[in-house]
Structures are given as C-alpha cells and as structure tokens.
Amino acid sequence: KPQKEKEEFEIKNAINKSLDLLSLNLKEIEIIKNIQNAKIYGFENELIQVFINILNNAKDALKEKVDEDSLRLLLVQTQQKEEQLILTIKDNAGGISSGAMPKIFEPYFTTKHKSVGTGIGLSMAHKIITEQHNASLEVDNETFEYQNQMFTGACFTITFNI
C-alpha cells in the first residue's frame, strides 16, 4: 500500500513487521537480531517491501546452498554512527558470485530460474532506498564468526542519514 507522505517511524518495528510477514518461510532459518531502536523518516511500507525482498533472497539462497542439516543463519542488525543508522542483513549462503555482484541492482538481472525470479526486486529496492529515503544500499560478501564458527555470505547494507 503506497504512502503519500513521509513519516517518522521506528526502524525496529519495520524490521519486525517484515520478519513476521515471512515467519512461515523462515522456519528452518536461525534469525539473529541486534536492532537498536532508532527513528527514521520515510515511507515505512516501502521499506518493509525492501526488507522482505532482501530477506526472501537470503532465504532462497540459504535453502539452495546450505544443507538443511546445517546451520542456516540470517543476521539482522543496526548500529548508529554519528548521523547515520546502518542496517545490515547477512546470511551464510556462501555469497554472491563475482560475475553477478556488479549487476545485482540492475533491472531484470537474476541468478534464479526464470520461473522463480524476475530480477526486479533488488532493482526496485535500490531505487526505493536511494531515491525516496536519501540512503544507500550496498552489497558485499562477508566472512563472519558466529558461535566459534566462520561463515561467508552476502551482506546487504542500508545506510540512512538521521
């Protein structure tokens, strides 16, 4: 549902709404949240759509690349640095190939089978973040430690100016 005017809202609520909407699809995934309560100014419903898109892509990658007997992780965290709120969403699905990485936000680019993906989700997410929220959306592969084990996966970073 599109919003007509920007409003102030809690980022934590938008993230939780996104995770709640996807809860049935994320049952086999361990979700680790470390979210500070911070207010941002924007379109909450559109940001929820962005979060859902990124989370769904992570879920698909985890189910495709990580054995169901293995630990499937999704880490969602925020941190404030001076006048910025940095939100990261990362998984342990091995990351995005170097060939796909530069094209990831291009319209109609997909690594999924045509019956599964259209390649429009991340392109729209990028547009919503950069054009309507004066923020940035970047992706990298990241290696991280969790419970004394090392994992690698995609890390989406959204940086809001607050």
Give the SSE layout.
Layout (H helix, E strand, L loop, with lengths): L6 E4 H11 L8 E5 L4 E4 L1 H22 L7 E9 L2 E8 L29 H12 L3 E11 L2 E13 L1
Helix pairs in contact: 1-2, 2-3
Task: Compute the CA-based radius of gyration.
Answer: 15 Å
Span of the ends, CA to CA: 24 Å
Number of helices: 3
Shape annotation: globular
Q: Supply the helix-strand structural class.
A: alpha+beta
Order of adjacent strands in the largest pleated sheet: 2-4-5-7-6
N-to-C SSE string, H for helix and E for strand? EHEEHEEHEE
Low-confidence stretches: none
Q: Mind summarizing the main beta sheet? A: 5 strands, mixed
Task: Report the count of strand segments.
Answer: 7
Strand content: 25-35%
Mean pLDDT: 93
Key words describing this protein structure:
about 30% helix, globular, alpha+beta
Can you characterise this structure?
It contains three helices and seven strands. The protein has helices at residues 11-21, 44-65, 121-132, and strands at 7-10, 30-34, 39-42, 73-81, 84-91, 136-146, 149-161. Helix 1 packs across helix 2 and helix 2 runs antiparallel to helix 3 (121-132). The radius of gyration is 15 Å and the shape is globular.
